[in-house]
Design a protein that fits this description.
The chain is of the alpha+beta class. It has a single domain, classed as Alpha-Beta Plaits, CATH 3.30.70.141. It is built from 7 helices and 4 strands. It has a 4-stranded antiparallel β-sheet with strand order 2-3-1-4. The radius of gyration is 15 Å and the shape is globular. The protein binds adenosine-5'-triphosphate and magnesium ion.
Length: 150
C-alpha cells in the first residue's frame, strides 16, 4: 500500500463558519497524519494556478473570486492511499448530492462552497502541494498512534 501525500484546503466558508476543528478532527481520527498546515489568503495568481484545469468553465471566474475572498487553511495529509481516502471522505463535489457521512454530505448544501478541496490524483497532489508549501514546511516525523491502525 503506497504511502501518499495529498493537499487539502479548508475553503473560506469552513473558517467563516467555525468548523475548521470538526473537519480536521475527521482526518485525525481516520489516522491521517498532518505533515504541513498553514493559514493563508490566496491571491489571484495562486488561485489561477491552483484551478488552471478549470479555466474557461462557466464556474471558473466566480470560483476564483470566492476562493480569494477570505483566508483559508491549507494542509498536507499523509497516509496509506491518502489521495483516494481523502477524496472519499470529502464526498461528491455538489454537497447536496454528497452522501451523509462524507464531509460535504454532512456540512454543506452548495456546489461552490463545498467545505474542502482534495487533490484528485498523484500528479495533482504533487503539483498542488508544491504550490502551497516549500519542502522545509513539510515535516517528516513519527506518529505513534499510526502503529495501532495497521
Ligand atoms: N458546477 C459548479 N458550480 C459551481 N462551482 C463549481 C461547479 N463545479 C465545480 N465547482 C467548484 O470548483 C471546484 C473544483 O471543481 P472540481 O470539478 O475539481 O471538483 P472537486 O474535485 O470535487 O473539488 P476540489 O477540486 O475542490 O477538491 C469545486 O470544488 C467547487 O468549489
Ligand atoms: Mg478537483
Amino acid at each position: 500500500m503506497p504511502v501518499e501525500r495529498t493537499l487539502v484546503l479548508l475553503k473560506p466558508e469552513t473558517l467563516q463558519r467555525g468548523i475548521v476543528g470538526e473537519v480536521i478532527s475527521r482526518f485525525e481520527r481516520r489516522g491521517l497524519k498532518i505533515v504541513a498546515l498553514k493559514m493563508l489568503w490566496m491571491d489571484r495568481d495562486l488561485a489561477e494556478r491552483h484551478y488552471a484545469a478549470h479555466r474557461g468553465k462557466d464556474f471558473y471566474e466566480p470560483l476564483i473570486e470566492y476562493i480569494t475572498s477570505s483566508p483559508l487553511i491549507a494542509m498536507v495529509l499523509e497516509g496509506d492511499e491518502a489521495i483516494e481516502v481523502v477524496r472519499k471522505m470529502a464526498g461528491s463535489t455538489d454537497c447536496r448530492e454528497a452522501e451523509p457521512g462524507t464531509i460535504r454530505g454532512d456540512f454543506g448544501l452548495s456546489t461552490q462552497k463545498n467545505i474542502v478541496h482534495a487533490s484528485d490524483s498523484s500528479e495533482s497532489a504533487e503539483r498542488e502541494i508544491a504550490l502551497f508549501f516549500s519542502p522545509d514546511e513539510i515535516h517528516d516525523y513519527d506518529l505513534s498512534v499510526s502503529r495501532w491502525l495497521k
